[in-house]
What does this fold into?
Amino acid sequence: MKSNEIKLDQDLNRQLWSRGKTNPPRKVRVKMVKEEGGTVTVSLYEDLPAAATAAVETPTPEEKKDEEPKPSAEMMTTNTEQSSEEGKTKSANK
It folds into this structure.
């Protein structure tokens, strides 16, 4: 991008100067935007902007509970039979 004026974002400037003038970072990911007036603004690259993150829907805990499989009637009867058999064996052992 050719431009007569280039502006660095404050966050980018802080990142570049974070380790002092003698030890700058070797690589920095940046995002460049050319405005209508011909000015180029350079800022730190962001993986996911806040607007895109808000657009992604995550299921709430209530929705997750609705999706859980419910035990079938056969499973309930088997558990009941097992618990009654356990109760008989415990009383027989006493």
Notes: DSSP finds four helices and three strands in the chain. The longest helix spans residues 73-93. The mean pLDDT is 77. The first strand starts at residue 6 and ends at 8.
